[in-house]
Each structure stands twice: as C-alpha cells, then as structure tokens.
Amino acid sequence: MTQPTGQISGKKVIINLVICQxxxxxxxxxxxxxxxxxxxxxxxxxxxxxxxxxxxxxxxPRIEEGDILAIIVAxxxxxxxxxxxxxxxxxxxxxxxxxxxxxGQQPLGYMVDESGNVNLPLAGKIKVSGLSxxxxxxxxxxxxxxxxxxxxxxxRQLNQKVTxxxxxxxxxxxxxxxxxxxLPELIGMAGDLTIFGRRDNxxxxxxxxxxxxxxxxxxxSRNVLNSPxxxxxxxxxxxxxxxxxxxxxxxxxxxxxxxxxxxxxSILVLISIFLK
Length: 276
What we know:
By secondary structure, the protein is of the alpha+beta class. It has helices at residues 5-28, 78-85, 133-144, 183-189, 244-250, 252-274, and strands spanning 68-74, 95-97, 100-101, 110-111, 117-120, 124-127, 152-157, 161-166, 172-175, 202-208, 211-217, 237-240.
C-alpha cells in the first residue's frame, strides 16, 4: 500500500528540518581544541616533552605619587614601634573572592603625596617617589636611625591592582600580592577565560611615563613566556576579546531560530497527521 504523496513529502520536510536543527546546534557550539589550548609549541604541536624557554624578567616597580605604603618599623623601643606602625593596620579592602576587592575602598598606610613624600613621625617628610622598595627601605632605615636605636624598616605597597574585563569567569579589579605576578596567575585569579574568550589576542593596556601602551599577547603560544609583558604591573588593564561565536550566540535571531524551527516542525507533524 502506497502512502499519499503529500504525507511522504511532509515527512521529508520534517526529517530535513530535524537534520538542520542538529547541524546548527553542532555548528554553533563548535570550538577547536587548538584555539583554547595554552602555551602551544611551534605550529601548535609539542615536538618534545621538555623545552628550555628563556625566562621573562619582571621590571623593578618604582614608588609613585599616590601610592599607599605599609611601612613597618622595628626597633628596641616598643613605644616608638607603636608610634610608627599605628597607621599600618590590615587593609580595609572587602574580598569578593580570592584576589578581588570592592571598588572605592582604600587600605590604610602612608600615602605618597603629590610631591613624592611620605610623612613619618619624628622624621617628617621623606621623598621616596622614583625609588624601588629596596632603595626606600635603605633610605628610611638611615633616616630613622637618627631617632631610633638599630631600626629595621619593611615597606610594602598596598594599592597594587590590575583590572581584568571581558570573557573571563570573574571580571573585576584584582589586588596584586607581589611585584612578580604573571599574566597566567592573574587570569587564574579571574577564574580563567570562558570558552568564548580569545586566547590568541589578549589586550594589555599599560600606562607608562604618561603614555598608554596597547599590546596584543597570544596565550596559545609559548613565546608569551619570555615576553616583556609576561609580568603584569600596577594599574594594568587586561581585556579578553570574545570570539565571533559569542556574538552569534548572543544574536536574538540565532536565539529564536531553534524555537521557530521547532514550531514549524510541530505544525508540519500536525499537517502530516491530518493528511493520513
């Protein structure tokens, strides 16, 4: 017994629509392994289990106007120690998740004024801008030795931060715990890139000598490991660009397409039933 021509053609249309839906779902979710793998070798391949790569070196950070310094002084006089260390309580940043803090709050410490000075008890104003932490330690130790017996000074910058935005799981302003925080460490603090984040075109914006540098870095290549921008610096901005798949997925037409196809399939099913 042969089926009516309209019923056969209707079933063919339904089958074709189902195939199209499956194809679109696969196409929209397809991301190549090569595009999301970090630190690949030449041509995206690993030719050996071990390869020696020159180490990137972090630049020595210099104290700038507006920096907030925790200056811890130790000497044989407990009273003097309390006098110097009183402003250096735990920073008042509120942690949202490890490494990230709320904006607008500021840790306590010694502020470097617009002239590059810190104002210490007894010693008064001391110019520290332009100095490294090691140099500032030596300078403050020498100055305070005039008032204290065998002083020891330990300085730490409290307001080191980097902004991470774009296709990461936890975008925000992240605190730097030390001056040698690498870009992979920072990305780890931000919860890693999403599957839609472009690992081959990471934008780094850095302010240096009143100028802004814009650098593109490829995290899928091992060459980034010896890049001069491998270590982030205070006030860097990292932007992770989305892939075209993210834009496509966010497009309302693409979002509605499965619904339209599903509704069309249902209508054709009903029509095929009535044609029996």
